[in-house]
Amino acid sequence: MECLMSLFEELKRRNVFRVGVAYIVASWVLLQVADLVLEAINAPNWVMQAMLMFVVLGFIASVIIAWAYEITPEGIKRESEVDRDKSITHATAARLVRITIGLLVTVVAIIVLERFVLTPPGPVAPQQAQTAEPVPESGPVVAQHTTEKNSLAVLTFVSISSGEDDEYFADGLTEEILNSLAQLPELLITARTSSFSFKGQEIPVTEIAETLGVAHIVEGSVRRSGDRLRVTAQLVRAADGFHLWSENYDSSSGDTIQVQEDIAEKIAIAMDVVMDEKKREAMREAGLRDVEAFIAMQKARELYAKAHDVSYGIPVLREANEYLEQVLELVPGYPPALEEHSDLFVHILNNHVTGIPMVDVNEEDVDEAREQMLVDVNLALENARNFSEQNEYEINLSMLSNNWRGILPRINRYSEGSGCNNPTWSPQFALPFGDASAYAQRIAQVTKCDPMFSNNWFNESRAWIWAGEPERALEVARQGMEIAPGNWLRFSRSWSLIVLGRFEELENVINQDMQNRANRLMAEINRLAAMGQRDGIEPLLAEILADPEIGGFVEFLAHARIGDREATNRIAAQIDEDPFGSAALTGLVLWCMCGAPWDLEVTPNFAADLEEGGLHWPPPSPIKWPLKDW
């Protein structure tokens, strides 16, 4: 024991400990600066690895040198050559302490620089909310929903590197985590559209949570440099900003999937989910599990959203499909990619049969679209990962293939279920032919899950109109316009006002909100038709017919609502002759909201499909159009 104490005292006297501490701190500073510089110049990974090796070897050398040598007024000498009475190790010790303190100050400066200067803006942490600038009145509006204690939103991880695909990589990693957590029935996960809507905005986490109606937020950051990967993730309780869990990951890009899975599982455990192998397997199956695939998927989704935000989206959907095909090559049979890939072909077929102009589509494209659409939807169904997804794809396939037998039981199963999914083509059957009230309540769940997606508010508002609750439909439309405004929501708001007979208010809404020319013309025709004023409609209808870009869909709806039976029969009969005709005609029934828009006998194919599906005719008319007398 005395020998150990003697050795310890000698190590202290020779400043071995102080040299070791100073070396470690100095090495950390050196490596952090090198990390930033090497990342900026895209240096290969081996450079950093070599530096780390030299630092480790240097530590061993510095400790040996501190033991064997001593600094004296005459220079560095071997310790055995220095007279103990003339030793200045105490002065050297004081100098080492000052150097170490200076290095520690540098460490703090680097941490502050990296966290608050070099990191791009992201959601503001709760404790920073008091100093944040006030959010203007036009900022996010809180969705009026009860917050569940097991609710959670995964915000987009901030990319703090500047590689070509680094932002898509961060988005893809975020979506993989979100999809994994969404498989756990114990958790209520906000859908992608809403979670991603706050990307790049400096909004306090507490405010985001309140807007989304969730109790917890997951946020993080991602840095890539060559093959190196650094991910930071944390789970925050929105009520008080407490971090329930956080962790840093330093690994290689090859470990991305393992990092993503570990983050998702640890978040689930922090949320008191009891994990088992069945749940882990469901979480693994939910994602792409391929880095290149989820980068391509993010690029496709960016274009997919853009295509649905422009008046003519077919060229953009074609670009999106190029990336979706990359995804399907890497992960064959991935259902979400197949469903989105089919959307281009549905647009081509629907535009073709309803007379919407397409400048870059020929007959060969139309023939190919019919085949490819069914290939995609069938494959999506074959690869469905759970019962809910299977039912969703069965509804879509029934609609698009004109095989409507059993469609209403599938719609009913959907309405009785839960979750964030909404089969794309379900409104065509649920509202004119099914239980509109049950469907509206089901869509209200979807809106709660994904409140920043405007189409959800529109679908819910329209469903309440079909369910005979126009006041509720108007309230949903107004709240949706505050939270996630969109062109279609303007229509559901105007329809609600028509049903309620508030025509003066409707006129103001049209003049103030309907900026798109075709939408404004259609809305004004609707107002006049609902008031029974045929005279004012004729010039507006002539304007629609004179514009080839507006297309036959709007023309048909106008004819139906003013009671032009001959015109609607003629157009419906022409559509019925097309193989995609029955699917297109269900869309006209849904959007017309006018009961039977044509005489059933002029559409024999559609009539046969109705009979096969056990669907009643005529459907109800949620809006009364006095000029239509049949």
Textual characterization of the structure:
The chain has 27 helices and eight strands. The protein is of the alpha/beta class and 630 residues long. The strands form two sheets. Strands 3, 4, 5, 6, 7 and 8 form a six-stranded mixed sheet that branches. A hairpin with a 2-residue loop joins β6 (214-225) and β7. The radius of gyration is 32 Å and the shape is elongated. Residues 118-145 have low confidence and may be disordered.
Outline the fold blueprint.
Layout lengths: L1 H12 L2 H25 L4 H24 E4 L2 E4 L10 H29 L30 E7 L3 E2 L6 H16 L6 E2 L2 H5 L8 H8 L1 E12 L2 E10 L4 E11 L3 H15 L6 H10 L4 H17 L6 H17 L4 H20 L8 H20 L4 H15 L5 H10 L10 H4 L5 H14 L4 H13 L3 H14 L3 H14 L2 H11 L3 H14 L6 H9 L6 H10 L3 H12 L4 H12 L11 H10 L17
Parallel strand pairs: 3-5, 3-6, 4-6
Antiparallel strand pairs: 1-2, 6-7, 7-8
Helix pairs in contact: 2-3, 2-4, 5-8, 5-9, 5-10, 10-11, 11-12, 12-13, 13-14, 14-15, 15-17, 17-18, 18-19, 18-20, 19-20, 20-21, 20-22, 21-22, 22-23, 24-25, 25-26
